[in-house]
Amino acid sequence: MQRQETGSAAASLVVVLAAALAFGAGVWFVWRDWRLGAWLVNLLASLLLFAALGMWIGGRPDSVLIDNRNVISLSRLQMAAWSALILSALLTAAGLNMRIAPDAALNIALPEELLWLMGISASSLAGSALILNTKRSAAADPDLVRQTLGRTSSSDGADLTRQGVLVANASPREAHWSDLFTGEEVGNFSQLDLSRVQMFYISFLTVVVYGVMLGSLFASRHGFIDHFPAISGQLVGLIAISHGGYLAVKAVPHSQRGNPAGAGTPPDPPGN
């Protein structure tokens, strides 16, 4: 991605200042022992930090979610969501514990199921990148490429290109949140991907519910925080199945293959 100048730099500076103020407010809340407020402010500060990095690198606050195809990535979204949720909770709990026992502030037991869940999220992000990388060297049928890119470009005004059999946007500014639910190849780019819908639904449900559990922990527990709420092993299994199905569907070819010799030749721009 190209770094945006002037306006983006100023906007990113504003967001950085907002994040710094939020973290400062979180410290004050911790000092006052306002536990739930401290965590919520630290969560907001974490999200603002992501937004600041996005503005600085890609010129838009959600750039942290945009992959090298210039589309919003579902695996990046769920990884970012869990990172913000858990890391802000750890920061808050450690800060609260420092008021009681500074030498043991990080003695916080994380449930094994939570570690598995974070590992599944990280593995899904890495696996998704590996699968997409193999498809960049494949060639799609030229007629299908022209038909798909021409139809989609004319319908929403997007400037589309391709990477092997994968459809890509020409610029990060072309990324849309609808990318979360549609296919990635020229053969299914304009179609709804049910594996993505399922994974988004389960991830959203789990993040929200675990967030409520963390909020309840900070609101009701006084004294030293030595553990985080437990997660059902069956729920982690369901999440693993969802991620496995998502990666399996991603790995299956969805486009008629063309001549490999022409894989590196981009199609004619629509309308030319």
Structural write-up:
- Keywords: Membrane, Transmembrane, Transmembrane helix.
- It is a single chain.
- This protein has 272 residues and is mainly alpha-helical.
- The chain has two domains: 1-65; 67-262, no CATH class.
- It is 58% helix and 3% strand.
- The chain has helices spanning 7-31, 35-58, 74-98, 112-135, 142-156, 194-220, 233-251; strands at residues 160-163, 166-169.
- A two-stranded antiparallel sheet has the order 1-2.
- The protein starts with 6 loop residues before the first helix and ends in a 21-residue tail after the last helix.
- Mean pLDDT is 85; it is low at 261-266 and 268-272.
Tags for this model:
272 residues, mainly alpha, 2 domains, two-stranded antiparallel ribbon, 2 strands, 58% helix, 3% strand, globular, disordered C terminus, transmembrane
* Overall pLDDT level: 85
Distance between the termini: 26 Å
Structural class: mainly alpha
Shape: globular
Write down how many β-strands occur, each being a DSSP E stretch of 2 or more residues: 2
Helical content, roughly?
A: 55-70%
Low-confidence stretches: 261-266, 268-272
Rg calculated over all Cα atoms: 22 Å
- Strand fraction: under 5%
In total, the number of domains comes to: 2
Total DSSP helices: 7
Strand order of the biggest β-sheet = 1-2
Sequence of secondary-structure elements: HHHHHEEHH
Q: Major sheet: size, sense and barrel closure?
A: 2 strands, antiparallel
